[in-house]
Specification:
The protein has 386 residues and is α/β, with parallel strands linked by helices. Among the domains are: 18-97 and 208-263 and 326-377, 3-Layer(aba) Sandwich (Rossmann fold); 126-187, no CATH class. It has 14 helices and 17 strands. The protein has helices at residues 28-40, 82-88, 116-123, 129-139, 149-157, 159-174, 183-186, 212-220, 233-236, 251-254, 299-303, 330-344, 353-356, 363-377; strands at residues 18-24, 45-48, 60-62, 68-70, 77-79, 94-96, 101-105, 108-112, 204-208, 225-228, 241-247, 264-274, 284-286, 295-298, 310-318, 325-326, 349-351. The chain has a seven-stranded mixed beta sheet. The chain has a five-stranded parallel beta sheet with strand order 10-2-1-11-17, with helices on one face. A three-stranded antiparallel beta sheet has the order 5-9-6. The longest helix has 16 residues, at 159-174. The structure holds flavin-adenine dinucleotide and uridine-5'-diphosphate (UDP). Flavin-adenine dinucleotide binds next to helix 1, helix 13 and helix 14.
Length: 386
């Protein structure tokens, strides 16, 4: 944990005190709402997290070697929203960063998402963009209605490329065949016929200059916000007096899994520090077909840190453990809807964030959703902060 107001021992809540809001979860959803409610709304907020740090899954820290790493895997900020970017810019300066990923296929390291260079290098060809379009058309399989993550890819580029680049990565990542996952999952990646090798094309792509945790510290540095870490909602719910609740943990857990458990995919990271300045050419290298891990991340590419050592992480997907990803499948969407309906009966409880609303959201979408929630609480027309 970095130093500062939220380092080490947590600020402790005051049981006898009456809070206007208790916020469960100090990730993006909870922290943005704490900031807005306290700074703009003048509310007294208790922000709790069961973990020993703020920032949720975006938490970063200097490891024992002094290298800044993301404990829960690579987090790259990107957004097309000027408003979300302007809002976060109140709490951090930025380091321009465009994310590039290589994937290991047939013994070669190739650009991912698939682009003109990926195909030319994979097959030792010299196609132009127009030729590549026809190459894809010749291989694409007709699919009447695109419903699954397999449909998305085979209908665009055919089965061979699907099998090389997507099928096994997806099976590892989700523990499911792409045929059983919504189209939205593999639709996250474009298929390109040009040479653009950036992972994202958003207008704003940058990393917080001093890291995410520092940005969260700045966001929460207000006398109206009390932060209590290593504190579970279960320990607070009856011990603290409050008016309203914002819950950014798993919605099914809040309701004691009344309708059954919503599935979440979890991850395990093996963090390693090496006695060498660099390990790989880009921040992330994917391994769809070999190994049990899905990808290796080298953090210095993301953070711009100069250090004589380097830190990397191997990422393994698993079904047990902390919830990281909602699993996009129709049956899970139906189950979530039942919880959402139940939640609508609780007017002083707001469910927000990736776990609270069971949405495969990126950071900027969670910030937008939290700002929208704040506007709704205020009865405001727009969420754009004054
Ligand atoms: P979280 O960050 O999960 O925060 C929820 C918090 O609630 C947690 O800290 C948890 O401990 C706490 N909590 C839950 N229940 C309780 C309870 N009962 N009592 C107390 N505390 C509780 N997004 C991007 O935009 N770009 C990326 O590159 C990117 N990469 C990612 C890589 C990985 C490996 C993962 C898993 C996600 C990535 N994301 C990325 C998504 C990003 O992490 C999320 O959009 C964002 O962090 C969600 O914020 P949140 O506040 O909704 O949830
Ligand atoms: N994907 C894949 N091969 C890759 C990269 C991604 O099959 O090399 C699929 C996989 O199903 C993954 C999804 O595309 O879960 C979305 O990828 P993204 O990089 O957006 O996942 P995240 O960063 O959210 O884990």
């Amino acid at each position: 944990m970095q130093g500062g107001r939220f380092g080490g021992s947590a600020l402790k809540m005051r049981p006898a005190f009456h809070y206007d809001y208790v916020i469960v979860g100090a990730g993006f959803a909870g922290s943005v709402l704490a900031e807005r409610l306290a700074v703009d709304g003048g509310q007294r907020v208790l922000l709790i997290d069961r973990r020993s740090h703020i920032g949720g899954n975006a938490y970063d820290m200097h490891n024992s070697a002094g290298v800044l790493v993301h404990r829960y895997g690579p987090h790259i900020f990107h957004t097309n929203s000027d408003e979300v970017f302007a809002y976060l810019s109140r709490f951090t300066r930025w380091r321009p960063y465009e994310h590039r990923v290589l994937t290991h296929v047939d013994g070669k390291l190739l650009p991912m998402p698939i682009n003109l260079d990926t195909i030319n290098r994979l097959y030792d060809l010299d196609l132009t963009s127009a030729q590549l379009e026809r190459f894809f058309e010749a291989r694409a399989e007709p699919v009447a209605a695109i419903r699954t993550s397999e449909d998305v890819i085979v209908s665009r580029i055919g089965r061979e490329l699907y099998e090389k680049f997507f099928r096994n990565y997806t099976r590892k990542q989700w523990g499911l065949d792409p045929r059983r996952l919504d189209a939205s999952v593999t639709s996250r990646l474009p298929i390109r016929t040009n040479r653009d090798d950036r992972y994202f094309t958003d207008v704003h792509q940058a990393m917080p200059l001093l890291g995410y945790t520092r940005m969260f510290e700045n966001m929460l540095d207000h006398p109206g916000i009390t932060v209590s870490l290593q504190t579970d909602f279960i320990d607070v719910s009856s011990a603290v007096r409050y008016q309203s609740l914002i819950y950014t943990g798993p919605i099914d857990e809040y309701f004691d899994h009344r309708y059954g458990k919503l599935p979440y995919r979890s991850l395990r990271f093996e963090h390693v520090t090496l006695e060498q300045p660099w390990f790989q050419d880009v921040a992330v290298v994917n391994f769809p077909n070999e190994h049990r891990f899905t990808r290796i991340t080298e953090y210095k590419h993301l953070t711009g840190q100069q250090h004589r050592k380097t830190s990397i992480s191997y990422e393994f997907a698993q079904s047990e453990g902390d919830p990281y990803y909602p699993v996009p499948q129709p049956e899970n969407a139906s189950l979530y809807k039942r919880y959402k309906l139940l939640a609508e009966g609780y007017s002083n409880v707001h469910f927000v964030g990736r776990l609270g609303t069971y949405k495969y959201y990126n950071m900027d979408q969670v910030v937008g959703q939290a700002l929208t929630t704040y506007a709704k609480i205020n009865g405001a027309q727009s969420w754009i902060p004054a």
